[in-house]
Structures are given as structure tokens and as C-alpha cells.
Amino acid sequence: MMRIGLFDSFPVLTTSRLCLRQMNTGDAEDLYHFYSNSKVTQFLDWHGPSSVQDSQDLIVSWNQHFQDKRLFPWGITMKTDPTLIGTVMFMPIRNTFEQKPLLPLNVGFELNPQYWNKGIMSEALEAVLSFSKEHIGAHRIQAEVFPDNKASLKVLEKLGFKQEGVMHQYLMHEVTRTFLDVIMLAIINNT
């Protein structure tokens, strides 16, 4: 199902309000800015990049993973403003997008709190799910969410993801070295 040449250039997705595009090192300050907010990192298994330079290195790494067909790392901006306000990461749980049959895909996302409760992330994820259906043909897309992250659970359920249960001590926080529970959610494509 995957279109030939899908990785020849980065796929830009647009919605009525948003542009999901490839990030570049010029976005590092914006990335660092929203990751520096504890409201963003409280539900992550790390504290985010520790500097603008770390943010640049992270963006370079994400773009290399795209070249290796292991990740679609979209940066979210408003159509009317190129400032990076969030990210959507879309990746196979193992291997690359070229493996057949395609393994489940994970989706992860962050958004600058200034843009919360405006339907931004729902709109961005709808575009990613539509892209997947049209160009990738993933049978299963899953997300791992901390149980206290009610907003992300609500967004995913609104888009049709179903809770499958709690994965106990599934992740380890990169900084605190504590084990964390997550709720596994998934959407199954039967078409």
C-alpha cells in the first residue's frame, strides 16, 4: 500500500488551520521553549532537551530517522505563523516503514500549552491518521499514555482509539530512573 517514493521528500500535511512539516535546526529555539514547560514534560518519560543545542541535535536525529524510513517527525505550526508549536512522531514499533507486513505504528505528540484546548492536536492527529490510511496502510496504530494524562486520553478516544489496558511499569523515565505505567490505546484499520 505504501506509495513508492514516500520518503523521497518529507510529506507536508495541511489542515484548515495547521501545517505539519519537517522541522529544521532553525526550529530548535521554539522546540526548546515548549519542552521547557513542565506542563509538557510531566507526562513524558524524559525532561526534554536541556538546551537549544540539544534541540538542534534532536531535530537532526529525527530527520536522520526519517531518511532511514524509521520515523515521520512532523512539526506543527499554524498556517499563518511558522513558529513551531508542537510535534507528532509516527513510527513503527520495530524496524522500518518498508517492512511487510507492516508492524504496529506508534504515535506520540506534544503541544505548547499556550495552544491547549483549541482542538489543535485533534486536528493534527486527524491529518496524520488520514495520511497513514491513504499512503501507508497501517493495520494498527497505537499510543502509550500515562494514566493521569486525561487530555491526551480524551483526544485519542475522540479519534477512535480504544483503551486496551494498563501496561504496568512499561517505561522507565530517562532521568528519574523510575518505572512508569502507561495505558495502551489502539485504533485498528480493518479496511
UniProtKB/TrEMBL annotation:
Domain annotation N-acetyltransferase: ranges: 18-186
SUPFAM superfamilies from the UniProt entry: Acyl-CoA N-acyltransferases (Nat)
Database matches in PROSITE patterns: GNAT
InterPro entries named in the record: Acyl_CoA_acyltransferase, GNAT_dom, N-acetyltransferase
Xref: Pfam families: Acetyltransf_3 (PF13302)
Annotated PANTHER family: GNAT FAMILY, PUTATIVE (AFU_ORTHOLOGUE AFUA_3G00765)-RELATED-RELATED, RIBOSOMAL-PROTEIN-ALANINE ACETYLTRANSFERASE
Protein name: N-acetyltransferase
Species per Swiss-Prot/TrEMBL record: Paenibacillus marchantiophytorum
Lineage: Bacteria, Bacillati, Bacillota, Bacilli, Bacillales
